[in-house]
Amino acid sequence: MPITWHEPTRQLHLHNGRLSLVLAVLENDWLGQLHVGAPLDPQATYRHLGPAEFLGFTNRVDEPVGLAVPTAGSGDFRIPALVVEQPDGSAVLDMAYAGHRIVTGKPDLEGLPSTYVEDPSEAATVEIDLADPVAGLEVTLVVTIFEDRPVIARSMRLRNAGTGRLIVRTAMSASVDLPDGPWDLLGFSGAWGRERHPHRAALLPGRRAVGSLRGATGHEHDPSLFLLRPETDETRGEGFALSLVYSGNFLAEADVGSRSTTRIRMGIHPDGFAWTLEPGATFTTPEAVLAWSGDGIGALSAALHAFYRERLARGVWRDRLRPILLNSWEGVYFDFDHARLLDMARASADLGVELFVLDDGWFGERDHDRTSLGDWVVDRRKLPDGLAPLAADVEALGMSFGLWIEPEMVSVQSRLFAEHPEWAIGIPGRERTESRHQLVMDLSRPEVVDHLEVAIGDVLSSAAISYVKWDMNRNITEPFGASLPADRHGEFFHRYMLGTYELWRRLTTRFPDVLFESCASGGGRFDPGMLAFAPQAWTSDDTDAIERLSIQWGASHVYPLSSIGAHVSAVPNHQVGRVTPLATRAAVAFFGVFGYELDPRTLGDTERAEIRGHIAFYREHREIFQRGRFIRLRSPLGGDDAAWMVVAEDRMTAIVAHYRILRRPVAPPDRLRLRDLDPGTVYRVSAWPGPTPAASVRRGGDLLMAVGLGLVPEDPATGVPDGDFAARLYVLSAD
Ligand code: GLA
What is the distance between the alpha carbons of residues 373 and 386, in angstroms, rounded to a whole number? Predict the structure, then answer.
């Protein structure tokens, strides 16, 4: 059992040879955190890592004691993980150890997405009970350690064990105390169209936070943070990754204290949050995941990729190779009918596309974005016979059929809004702020979830729909749950998320064979919470190959390639107007769940032939693109070029990509050092697009890693130097 309890020192040690978490009950019965990070000997005791004797902070203000569930108001002036207001108005807590249970496996989190095990032997969980009889509060800290992964998962369950009403003001999923500095903080931030750009900076005394108050995780910040030693890079050095399995308002914050100790907390954003616990009631926080590595950022990413792909994503599509899709959006937007779509589908099938996706515009009278969300009935003007014959026509072409929906929204101009204005979020007597002419449905109301389950369920069962793109295109304003009592609106945002998860749960359970992709104006709700329901996400509305380098580079820190939707679109690019070669657009989109986002009827013969080749190439290597180990080599941010690679699990095959962002004159000879190959294997290296394999070279894995791969400085076929925005892949296979 990888969790051991040492009674004499009251020490709990979670260990698996990959990382250790050592907790201990301190002299005043608080739960201390003695160590987190590098694996330690499970036989030893570590009480000396904590304070010699700890009786509370009273006489030792600012003593840097590591605590597992820090509270406010009793001498620890750092950021608290738990703040609960009591009937007398006070919020001071004294959470004393009351017992613990060690169990094999991992219990599910009620109503919330979470990581899981398939067999109890994969993990062990400790549930540690803490109690404050004065407040009438019981807390159970739930920590799971997984076999052979450098990862733990953590959440908290609160229970009102008293007789008065409690109000939970802060309940963090994770709180981690790091005993020494300095640390750098690496986060993933941006905006619509440039999501998840990495930002790294040294932590300074005081607080640094990212978060969201939008009702969704948002485009601005990913709910994940990496803490890195200043010297840590992709391959070396110590670091932690913390990531929240949640899709709503969140806070991820670091606080460096006067003794250079750092506390990290992560969970539901406390701003505007207040959850009432009546006597006997419970509240469960979302889950946070923590990974540790001594081998650099790449190893943290590898741990998260494997964990999220294998034990967060669920359902039959978790392990299936994903189809190559063509999405109608950038090709025709709202302007289509059955005949036009069928022409597009024919042209798609001819290219080798496997899944034809009809995006926005098929329902109500949706000729533009000002109308019809909520009216989930087929627009008979465009599709007189409905979706079923269209899906059948698409299937007859040898492809499967997919559909776009945006269940959480309602257009002001819609039948649904006319009938049920009270189902849209808003405060009676106050104007509702519109965004993209739409309002958000109040999913905190069970009847709204019930309605949407039926409305969307009817659509999904009306035709052979094998893929769904579930979009969500605006954030919440005027937050207010019309069905909540006046003193419980602080629960609204979280109740919205619980309702949304419930809808996802019902629809994914009812349609287990459907492949779901989540979307929120691109990557506005791309987070581990959504990944638990939809194994892939539309990474960004920005489909420009050069912009995508940075977006996908950033996303790859946390998310596996099997979750990163990436499409080739037309040029000039619709978001930034840039013109890039077709091969470059493909070479970027290959590193994700590959597809197209254009009108295939507009392509010339040369482009069609080229695309057929691209699709054949992706198919041939799909397994490694979707399941291989992804390795970042050269960052696109700020440089003139970028590079990354994927390696098969057995290291016998790898695909390396090098992207020339800007060509400079008199470029020095360039060698790209590869990683994670087998040093003893000789690989055949062939360039793509490029000469036939006959012209490939043989190179040893040792050489490719130690000296590097000589980059082809010019187009090998024509001898012309590659210009701006050129890309070249190198396929390595054991000879
Ligand atoms: C969002 C999505 C796009 C597309 C449109 C349709 O912006 O991110 O991919 O589906 O909505 O309105």
Answer: 17
pLDDT tens for residues 522-538? 999 999 999 999 999 99
Q: Rounded to an integer, what distance in angstroms lies between the CA atom of residue 101 and that of residue 565?
A: 41
Element containing residue 612 per DSSP (H, E): helix 605-627
Q: Is 541 a catalytic residue?
A: yes
Quote the ligand 1 centre to 515 CA distance (angstroms): 18
Residue 471 designated active-site = yes
CA 93 to chain centroid, in Å, comes to: 33
142 to 101, 103, 155: CA distances (angstroms): 10, 11, 5
Task: From 680, 692, 690, select the one nearest 735 (Cα to Cα).
Answer: 680
Q: What CA–CA distance (Å, rounded) separates 593 from 180? A: 40
**What is the C-alpha to C-alpha distance for residues 458 and 343, in angstroms, rounded to an integer?**
27
Q: Residues 322, 515: contact at Cβ < 8 Å?
A: yes
Catalytic residue among 379, 393, 442, 471: 471
Q: What is the whole-number distance in angstroms between the Cα of residue 293 and the centre of ligand 1? A: 37
- pLDDT tens digits for range 189-238: 999 999 999 999 999 999 999 999 999 999 999 999 999 999 999 999 99
Closest CA to 145 of 10, 257, 291, 31: 291
Q: Are strands 239-245 and 287-293 parallel, antiparallel or unpaired?
A: antiparallel
SS3 labels along 49-118: HCCCCCCCCCCCCCCCCCECCCECCCCCCCCCCEEEECCCCCCCCCCEEEEEEEEECCCCCCCCCCCCCC
Nearest ligand 1 atom, CA 521: 8
Q: Is 579 exposed, middle or buried (CB count within 10 Å of its CB: 0-12, 13-18, 19+)?
A: exposed
Between CA 528 and CA 571, with CA 194 as vertex, the angle to 5 degrees is: 120
For 493-513, how does the pLDDT look when each residue is reduced to its tens digit (9 = 90+)? 999 999 999 999 999 999 999
At 633, the pLDDT band (50, 70, 90 cuts) reads very high
User: Rounded to two decimals, what is the model's pTM?
Assistant: 0.97
CA distance 632 to 138: 45
Q: Give CA separation, 326 vs 18, 344, 345, 393, 561, in Å.
A: 41, 9, 9, 15, 18
For residue 713, the model assigns a pLDDT of 72
Distance 471 CA to ligand 1 centre (A): 7
- Give me the pLDDT at residue 666, please: 81
| Ligand 1 binding residues, C-beta < 6 A | 329, 359-360, 404, 471, 473, 519, 521-522, 538, 541
